[in-house]
């Protein structure tokens, strides 16, 4: 059987399973909803001034949504860049790029396999958070009907579907951050620089979205796309932010990936 | 071996890093069945040449072809039937030796995975295969590098200083292994800075110095041109140098620490020199022929020109075998 992109993808996932940083990201993704739910269990009251904050005691389905809101500042950008920023740079660090580039795979195939693995990691971490938040939230507050942003109530089955769809929309900006991390990983060839760099870019864009005077461009800044899923929680569904998130995120991700691809394809593998 | 393009063919390979010319118009031709020694001191450009052959770095000028395929144009297909490593072979330290080979076999495809056990046995790593590579010694990694190359069932092996860093038994085993592979019909191109190693294993050599090929051809021919070298210890080295320089049949005299090194046209010239030294009041404490070291070969290849500058050009053109 000839090796292909899937071969690389499968082995990238296996390698991720052997790395501590993988579990660090997962631990962050699991611990945040758990800490939140434990805090709810130990204290009375509820988070104020945050969407769905006042519903967390009514329905466990509100909990993943609250985590999504405050996780957008640095939590999910960090989890995403932890692997995306490392996935090429670690080959430089270990000197293994020359080892894998002298087999029967083209550089493009190695690149594609790694990109898929980084994206899968981000998706898996997000789903993990979602599952832990729903289960822990459900145990604490019950798998009850969820109040939408329009004030209507939806039953548990539909609430579950909406949460799942929200995670899907939330993944879009995460993938854009992954693309930024991948680009930095190929350019800097240094894991720490790429991870911190991607996180810094996410934070700088975050600041850009609160600075007065930038109202015109604000809807097109990456951090704003982390709110797009809220369109699903309105009745009727507000598709506008979701559609915008799709193309805005693509506008960030595609050039980053294209640049990373060209850098990876043409670079001299002189280290190691 | 079919009637096909040569295993290695490099034409005018140049690699520049800004002002620095790492490899300067290198031509190489390795024929099927050769064990080709690519010789040069550290920093001469051997590794950079090998990286270009394997498609890891892009030549600034020129082209490299393996079995007629340019790795820059044909990508991984150019490496069909080719295996090897540049500098120390590197693996994922957090995976076991076997897992690393499984990964590489998957990247090779076809039946590479079936060869893992055999390759581990060949390099005698079977009992440590389940340990993480992070805990391997340099020698074990070197052997794992060979095992990784064997997975590809290569017709051409490119090995960059395969014995560097190995202990004497390890070096011997590595040489034996390379000899066995050659006996099986594998063409080998190995770089080295040790002449003895190349003498033992290789039938042809290319010598690179400051990025340039100064000799390419049969090793035996090179040694014939090199002549006999001698080293002399005496009570008065500076005076000994003057006596040597004045003596007929004695050439290439130079002072190396407390030793005088020279080449002699024959035994008679050496005998006459010893008498002349004593007559000049220089007592001989040791006078012995030396095997031509790589440095001496370089010295001879660049004779007649200032050869102490890093970028010095040899005056003797590359000789064809």
Would you kindly provide a written description of the structure presented here, covering whatever features stand out?
The complex is a heterodimer of chains A (272) and B (321). Chain A is mainly alpha-helical and 272 residues long. Helix content of chain A is 66%, strand content 1%. Chain A contains ten helices and two strands. A two-stranded antiparallel ribbon of chain A has the order 1-2. The longest helix of chain A has 35 residues, at 107-141. The model of chain A has no long low-confidence stretch (mean pLDDT 93). Chain B starts with 7 loop residues before the first strand and ends in a 20-residue tail after the last helix. Chain B has helices at residues 46-53, 71-74, 97-108, 116-122, 138-150, 168-183, 195-201, 219-226, 237-246, 267-279, 294-301; strands spanning 8-17, 20-30, 35-39, 61-66, 82-85, 156-160, 187-192, 204-209, 212-218, 228-234, 250-256, 259-264, 284-290. Chain B is α/β, with parallel strands linked by helices and 321 residues long. The model of chain B is unreliable at 303-321 (pLDDT under 50). In chain B, strands 5-6-7-3-8-9 form a six-stranded mixed β-sheet, sandwiched between helices. Chain B folds into two domains: 8-224, P-loop containing nucleotide triphosphate hydrolases (Rossmann fold, 3-Layer(aba) Sandwich); 228-290, Alpha-Beta Plaits, CATH 3.30.70. At the A-B interface, helix 1 and helix 6 of A face strand 5 and helix 3 of B.
Q: How would you summarize this macromolecular structure in one to three sentences?
A:
Chain A is mainly alpha-helical and 272 residues long. Chain A has ten helices and two strands; from the N terminus they run H-H-H-H-H-H-H-E-E-H-H-H. Chain B is α/β, with parallel strands linked by helices and 321 residues long.
Overall 3D shape of chain B: elongated
Straight-line distance between termini of chain A:
30 Å
Number of helical stretches of at least 4 residues of chain A: 10
Q: CATH superfamily of the largest domain in chain B, please?
A: P-loop containing nucleotide triphosphate hydrolases
Largest sheet of chain B: 6 strands, mixed
Helix content of chain A: 55-70%
CATH class of the largest domain in chain B: Alpha Beta
Q: What is the subunit organization of this protein?
A: heterodimer
Number of strands of chain A: 2
Secondary structure: number of strands of chain B: 13
